[in-house]
Amino acid sequence: MNQNVFLQDEDLLIVYKPHNIDFDEFTSKTKQLCNINCELLPLYEMLRDCSGVVVYALNENALNDLQTQLKNNSFDINFYAVTVGEPKEKSGFFNAFAEFDKRAGKYNRIPQLNAGAENISLSYQVLESVNKLNLVKISTLEFNQNKIKFAMADLGMAILGDKDYGGDGFIKNAPLILNLVDVRFTHPKTKQVMSFKAVPPENKLWTSFNLNKWFKL
Q1: Which end of the chain has fewer CB atoms < 10 Å from its terminal CB, N or C?
Q2: Which residue pairs from 21-25 have beta carbons closer than 8 angstroms and sit at least 24 positions apart in sequence?
Q3: This prediction's pTM
Q4: Under 8 Å between Cβ of 70 and 43
């Protein structure tokens, strides 16, 4: 596994996770490849088929600071996805309440006042459409990829490769085309604003779009 490291200091390790690797396995291999002697403390986890920027803290103080920033909506988080379908609107906001079914591994809509109701909120922008496939920028206040999958499917444009919300046989054998491209936050010690960007992996399902126009690193 080649390791793409954006930042490594005494408090943080920022790396790129490819798709098709379990997060625990990725974390273990990352620790070895980066010669980390302490525990890696992930700010969030990523699904096996999701790729993009991963933020690890290297100590509890750094992790607590990052968690506080996230709680205070101080992170700028942008996922990009390829979706299937014809969106009713080219941009907009999504807000709903849902409950995560652990057995099924997916969210279902429920009334706001029900026990277990979680708010799912994001904004989206369809950047480009080709043959009913859409390149979509998704801005969120958290890193939960299952919520993103639920929201996009509920909007009528499920993420390509999403077997949970797209249904059986949904674009057969396609990987999940969801990438955490852009993360911005404040360094817990230096207080410098940090920005990390990652171009989606080389994949014909991404490169059918004009990526040079949308991903300027």
Answers
A1: C
A2: 21/48, 22/48, 23/47, 23/48
A3: 0.91
A4: yes
